[in-house]
Design brief:
single chain, alpha+beta, PH-domain like, 7-stranded antiparallel β-sheet, 3-stranded antiparallel β-sheet, globular, guanyl-nucleotide exchange factor activity, FGD1-4_PH2, cytoplasm, PH-like_dom_sf, cytoskeleton
């Protein structure tokens, strides 16, 4: 439950064990310095981000109309606070006051609470690409950038201005940027492997991307579905990830020369890739999505890249 006031946004939870108070405040975000924007997440529709100086919240409405109403209410409160601030500055400075432009508020590292990457969106550390597990490599969040990282990569502390300059757990990259200290030898020289290509969750950065079920593959026994991407900067290769935000794929398939078979099992959502005894079977979440994947893979299998003006765009 959220409550929007003129000067603050309160995120509350119901209080069921105590008589009298109905809600307990979990998070407060001051309207001064607050920003709001819509999120494009197919898994969580009608979501929007409220970013304050101290905290950042991802909120989900029940409908698009409700989301728009909340965003408009937040923006109206922001505009009102900014207008009062400008009026106060003009009254204090007078007509001969300082004409220097105020320094713009920019979401810089350590100055504003970051948007945290959801735990379930990654299966490996976003810095060293080592897979997480419940015993020896657990998930942590960098308080500066919001990445999900392992304990080894987040074993650093740096003072963050948005948290009153208190030391916070940060990843190695943010620690180096915020403190200026030199990296330990050898950590920055790790070369990227052939599978260490970041999964592109943004449609504009890929020809086609979505969750697919990889049937009959050994990874399908542990993963109900995989995040599959054909990136625009590498349009002849299909990368298969465990999660959308992973920075290392568990499989890459060079598509050149593959034969694409649509609906081999009598299911219009299924398609196969075959070449020289090698076979991959995928299942899309809809017939329309299967058609876009088949179109993109046939194009890549023939060696064509979507650079010409006549090429069809199959991205969603």
């Amino acid at each position: 439950m959220s409550f929007q006031f003129n000067n603050m946004l309160l995120y509350c939870v119901p209080r069921v064990l105590q008589v009298g108070a109905q809600f307990q405040v979990r998070t407060r975000i001051d309207v001064a310095g607050m920003k709001v924007r819509e999120l494009t997440d197919a898994e969580f529709p009608h979501s929007f981000l409220v970013s304050g100086k101290q905290r950042t919240l991802e909120l989900q409405a029940r409908s698009r109309d409700e989301m728009v109403s909340w965003m408009q209410a937040c923006q109206a409160a922001i505009d009102q606070v900014e207008k009062r601030s400008e009026t106060f500055k003009a009254a204090v400075q007078g007509p001969q006051g300082d004409t220097q432009e105020p320094k713009p508020q920019v979401e810089e590292l350590g100055l504003r609470a970051p948007q945290w990457v959801r735990d379930k969106m990654v299966t490996m550390c976003m810095r060293c690409q080592e897979p997480f597990n419940a015993l020896t490599r657990r998930r942590h969040h960098c308080r500066a950038c919001g990445y999900v990282v392992c304990a080894k990569c987040s074993d650093y502390r740096a003072e963050l201005k948005y948290d009153s300059n208190r030391p916070n757990r940060v990843c190695l990259t943010c620690y180096t940027f915020l403190t200026g200290n030199v990296l330990p030898q050898g950590k920055e020289d790790k070369r990227r492997g052939i599978l260490e290509k970041e999964a592109s969750a943004a449609p504009e950065q890929s020809l086609v991307c979505s969750f697919l079920q990889l049937i009959g593959d050994k990874c399908s026994r542990s993963l109900p579905r995989s995040w599959c991407v054909i990136p625009r900067d590498d349009p002849l290769v299909l990368y298969v990830y465990a999660a959308p935000q992973d920075t290392k794929a568990h499989t890459s398939i060079p598509l050149l020369g593959y034969q694409v078979i649509s609906g081999p099992q009598g299911d219009p959502r299924v398609f196969q890739l075959q070449q020289s005894g090698q076979q991959y079977t995928f299942k899309a979440e809809s017939v329309e999505l299967q058609g876009r994947w088949v179109t993109a893979i046939k194009r890549a299998a023939s060696g064509r890249t979507p650079e010409g003006p006549d090429e069809e765009d199959v991205s969603d």
